[in-house]
Design goal:
The chain is an alpha+beta fold. It contains 11 helices and 5 strands. A hairpin with a 2-residue loop joins strand 2 and strand 3.
Length: 382
């Protein structure tokens, strides 16, 4: 297994940002739907003494159906595993739903009349401004959703409370000035709060990106980009328990470059590093199955993990790896075994026992490696 830059998620990825924004909106929608519905119910009851009876009952029925749909919408989307394309689509649906909700809320001030007692002037003002303020924390994380709610709501409120009742100059002028100033304040606050939330999302993504990169670096060998011993041990533990549960055989191949110290002494350490890189690439390319895992175990040693294989298959893979290294034909003037670089390989295969430690597998392969080396090198032992 080799690490490449493409494996790391890109920070500031628009799709990833959209997914987080959607998750945050949907998580808040469940509670905000309940709070919004209760607010509407209390508002209708508060205005019932002065508002026309039939229109406000019809409004309440419409309002109940809308918030029931909003609750179902957020609950159903939270249960879905969305594909890469779907967050943007669901966000568009959310924006549309916010627009419709704002229009329904905006109908409530249509029941207002300048002849109402002063107390109810204050009540309708507090209701509409309170609904507008609540959207800052609920929707400003995604600006289109925030504006889709805020603009229709404020526009309809201004129309019904100010312009339609402009005959009463004093009240309309005061309400107009107050509502205009309040609208500017809410829109600016929403933008500021949304920018902070978006910045936090991007910072979180960048931190996760750095943590993933550091984790991969900690588990990979910088010279070969293969897994290192730490990374291999982590994967081995997972596979060991899986094979124990399924009672399936697995194998480990311990690979050692023959007479590598003599190679370094003769050609130098730079050439030695290049030799290790070429052998690592040959081993990685020759371990052909998706589940095969190649790691640099330390110095001139490599280890290969083969999943769901018997000894016969493991031996065949080991011989393929040995020949792959031999075919590189890297000159080795200091080797008493051959004129080119070779490897010795120890093979072990077993069905894991949950009562045993996973080190049982590679320790058995290590013992077989010593047999191969003591038998003349450039061979496999099993």
């Amino acid at each position: 297994m080799m690490i490449t830059e493409e494996e790391l998620p890109l920070p500031r990825d628009p799709e990833a940002v959209a997914r987080i924004q959607l998750d945050e909106l949907l998580k808040q929608s469940d509670s905000s739907a309940i709070v919004g519905y209760l607010t509407g119910l209390i508002s209708a009851i508060a205005l019932f003494p002065v508002a026309p009876m039939k229109p406000i009952i019809v409004w309440m029925v419409l309002f109940t159906g809308l918030y029931g749909f909003r609750w179902h919408f957020s609950r159903s989307r939270l249960k879905l595993n969305l594909t890469a394309e779907e967050p943007s689509m669901v966000l568009n649906h959310f924006v549309l739903l916010n627009f419709v909700t704002a229009v329904v809320w905006g109908i409530l001030p249509s029941f207002y009349a300048s002849s109402w007692p002063t107390f109810y002037h204050i009540v309708i003002w507090l209701i509409m401004t309170g609904v507008a303020a609540s959207t800052i924390s609920s929707y400003s994380i995604y600006r289109p959703a925030f504006l889709a709610f805020m603009i229709p709501l404020l526009t309809l409120t201004f129309w019904f409370l100010v312009i339609r009742n402009s005959g009463n100059f004093d009240n309309s002028m005061v309400l107009g000035l107050l509502l205009g100033a309040y609208s500017i304040l809410v829109l600016k606050s929403g933008k500021m709060y949304g920018d902070i939330l978006t910045s936090n999302i991007i910072n979180r993504m960048e931190l996760e990106h750095v943590n993933q990169a550091l984790q991969k670096q900690a588990e990979h060998d910088p010279l070969t980009q293969l897994l290192n011993r730490r990374g291999f041990d982590s994967r081995l533990k997972t596979e060991w328990h899986r094979h124990a549960r399924q009672e399936q055989s697995m194998a480990a191949l311990m690979v050692d470059i023959d007479h590598f110290k003599k190679y370094n002494d003769h050609y130098g350490h730079d050439a030695g590093d290049q030799c290790i890189r070429r052998i690592a690439q040959a081993l990685h390319s020759s371990a052909q199955r998706a589940g095969d895992l190649v790691a640099r175990y330390g110095g001139e040693e490599f280890i290969v993990l083969l999943t769901d294989v018997q000894m016969k298959q493991a031996r065949a893979v080991a011989e393929r790896l040995r020949k792959a290294v031999e075919s590189l034909d890297i000159p080795h003037a200091g080797s008493p075994t051959a004129k080119h670089v070779t490897v010795s390989i120890g093979v072990s295969a077993l069905v894991p026992d949950s009562n045993q430690d996973e080190s049982t597998l590679y320790m058995a392969a290590d013992r077989k490696l010593y047999e191969a080396k003591n038998s003349g090198r450039n061979r496999i032992a099993y």
